[in-house]
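Sanity check record (used in CI):
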Amino acid sequence: MLHIFRASNLVFCGEYELEEARIFSRKILEKIVSTGKGRLLQQIEHELSFPWFARLDHLEHRVWIEETEANVLWKGKTSYNRISCLYNDELLQLATLNFEFKQLIFKNELKELKRWTEKYGMSNMGFGREKSTYSYFAVAASFTSLPHDSYVRMIVAKTAIIITVADDFFDSFGSLNQLEILTKAVQRWDSRGLSSHSKVIFDALDDLVSEASRKYLQQEGTSDDISRNLKDLVSVTKFI
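Expected output for Terpene synthase metal-binding domain-containing protein:
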């Protein structure tokens, strides 16, 4: 029943038989949970509580590792016996190493992100929300968790941080004159005349555009410079 319910997460519109199977299997699983008995009780509760499309891949991998380690034994009359069909030592070791490898990448990326916010002074603005960890978690958890997409996570997380800081500056801290000066500076992409918080935001934005352009050149192996396009995009979407 548990596997049927899991499979029904991939139901498409019009697959009525699978929809009925999902309803039926859910009722059976809920009944099992209500009894409070069963070797896979914790696993069943997890499946019923968290829709497949709302789960975070990296955390799901950890759940699988912990469940596999906990559920490979069943209690016989006189001893515990290993269920070979549910346990593969090599697969478990590989999954653990993969989780630890990705976790190390995430920690290093978050460390670099915090270093970047401190370098440009966005972590010490004195107002608004400091969202480095929040922004990175949101990106890494929902956008992509693949190790080779590191530069994508960093670019998107930095963008989210700048947007948050700029939004707070425009909404609650900056004077009308400061906001007009910053807007015009972004439109002409020139930091002359900026100071204090306005310059912090512009410098971080300029660094982000430069980094994104460099990454594009490296990834695509082309001589096309997209920095001008990115600057034009920023000027017409964020500050007007």
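Residues 73-85 have pLDDT under 50 and may be disordered. If this sentence no longer matches the regenerated tokens, the check is flagged for review.
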